[in-house]
Amino acid sequence: MVTASAAARAQGFGSVEEQMVFQELLRQGLKHGEDFTFQNRFFGGRLDKGGLVVDFLFSNPPNLAINITGFYYHYQQGVGQLAQDVYAKLQLAQQGITLIEIDDDDVHRDAAFYVREALRFRDHSRRARGMG
Question: What's the predicted TM-score (pTM) here?
């Protein structure tokens, strides 16, 4: 169940799709701050060269991260963005963290399904299917 305070935390930050996934995680019984956190900086975050920000980082299940992958930004910006995304996945893997991507249009199509699948470490993104 989504509590009023949890819903308030989700308002005002992140993309629409990130907020939708945040709300879906709450609907599926996960607790922000306990089971997952939002917008986690690694290696200095976006301000440092080589740094990155992960949309959702989980302690339950452990060693899982989810990023929402926008079609325009992640698929249409060329090989430079692709290289950054691949590098981020490798950086996290070296820390023992599996990064699952959820495409933004999939969030709109069926957020519950794609979040459930991501929590099971199943990646259905275009990139995972070799299409991006």
Answer: 0.79
DSSP per-residue letters across the chain: ---HHHHHHHTTSS-HHHHHHHHHHHHTT--BTTTEEEEEEETTGGGSTT-EEEEEEEETTEEEEEEEE-IIIIISS-HHHHHHHHHHHHHHHHTT-EEEEEEHHHHHHHHHHHHHHHHTT---STTTTT--
CATH number of the domain enclosing 28: 3.40.960.10
Domain count, the chain: 1
- Say how far apart CA 82 and CA 124 lie, in whole Å: 17
pLDDT in tens, 83-124: 777 787 888 898 899 999 999 999 999 999 999 999 999 999
d(C-alpha 42, C-alpha 119), whole Å: 21
110, part of any domain: yes
Q: State the residue range of the domain holding 34.
A: 4-119
Cα 27 from Cα 62, distance rounded (Å): 19
Q: Whole-angstrom Cα distance, residue 29 to residue 45? A: 28
